[in-house]
Amino acid sequence: EKQVETYLAVREREAKIADVSRQQIEEHSKDAEKSRGGIGEMMAGMKGLGSVADLLTADIRAARELGYNTAEYQWIKERVLEASSNALAEQMNQQILATMNAQYEQTRSALEQAETDEERGFVAETLKRIEEDRASLNAAPEEPWIVPNRKLLEKHESGLKALEMELAKFGDADAGEAVAEPDSTEDEAQK
Fold first, then answer.
1. What are phi and psi of 114, to 5 degrees?
2. If you placed Cys at 58, which of 14, 27, 98, 174 could pair as Cys (CB 3.0 to 4.6 Å)?
């Protein structure tokens, strides 16, 4: 619980740092355009690169400013992304499984309608491959800590979504990975 709160606090501060960095990049870009071809353009370009570096390391800077151990923050961030990725993968697997089930039913129907032994053999082999694919999809191993981490993230879903939207304004590459959307098929499976 405390680790998720740390993650949220750092990401909030990161959004503020990213906003300032983005504004500085825009200012340096305007300065570079004004001083075309001179040393001023080169200096503005160098300042712009510094602001880009600030933007790319905003989360580490935020953790440091808030007094958190940056290595611990990185570890927490990895666990959050791992749990979120797992949730997305599960959603994809459920969608794939639904498609496979529909394909299985269509193929089973085709087996019932097959007229020759050759047709029945081909369709039966297809059914066998679909069954094997479904079994391998369901057999994916999961690390034991992922499920509890996903449940913990679900408690903080609204805060994570708000941060995701805030960070998306600044083009944060992994902001979209912070929270997995709930899937209606998952909700239905739990009923």
1. -60, 135
2. 14
- Residue 42's alpha-carbon distances to 28, 35, 186, in angstroms, are 10, 9, 54
| Alpha-carbon gap, residue 58 to 163, rounded angstroms | 14
pLDDT in tens, 111-167: 999 999 999 999 999 999 999 988 887 766 667 777 777 777 777 676 666 556 665
Q: How far apart are CA 33 and CA 187, in angstroms?
A: 53
Give the C-alpha separation, 24 to 49, whole Å. 10
Q: Which amino acid is present at 110?
A: A
Q: What is the pLDDT of residue 7?
A: 82
Mean pLDDT confidence for 1-18: 83
